[in-house]
Amino acid sequence: MNTMLRKSVLGIAGVAFTGGLFAGPVAAHADTTPVKTNPVAAVQADVVRADKPDMGRLLPHGTPTGQSHVDLGDEQISNVKAIIAATKKAGMDERAAVVSIATALQESKLENLGHLGDRNDHDSQGLFQQRPSSGWGTVEQITDPEYSTLAFLKGLKQVDGWQDMPLTQAAQTVQVSAYPDHYAQWEQQAADLVAQHWTS
Questions:
Q1: pLDDT tens-digit profile of 144-175?
Q2: Which of 50, 78, 110, 139 is most buried (CB neighbours < 10 A)?
Q3: Calpha distance 57→163 (Å, rounded)
């Protein structure tokens, strides 16, 4: 009997102790000293988050498997910045820039290519390998990074629901490539480039 009484008391004490841990400190023993905060630091943290694009928005479907990567030189980085500037000029968001940059990575490795002679796909030129004979513009226009990006984005805007599509499907609908699945391999690098340069 004595043992049962002792177990009951210890059980109740254990419940009370556990309840105290979950409920927090007892008010009579709590430290009531106000915690000093630094509101300026909190505001700065919010600004940093607002300036950096959200990777969830840049990669809404996650990163496809089998990603490729290419090291970029100054001219290619300049073309990345031109694509981002044209995307903003078109009034489109960071996801549109990711689609555009991934497309240009696949088509030209972000190099503003002129006519490649025998290695050319018909008369394809520029960052997006657009063809004058298919109505994309003159050679001078499609080898201008801003013009070629705006032309690509004009096509993208006409794709119903492009924002909800996997990148490779959206890009392929505009580009009509012989290799429709190849755009997906550049999605991570394109997202990283947009995250890095969107606000620069």
A1: 999 999 999 999 999 999 999 999 999 999 99
A2: 110
A3: 10
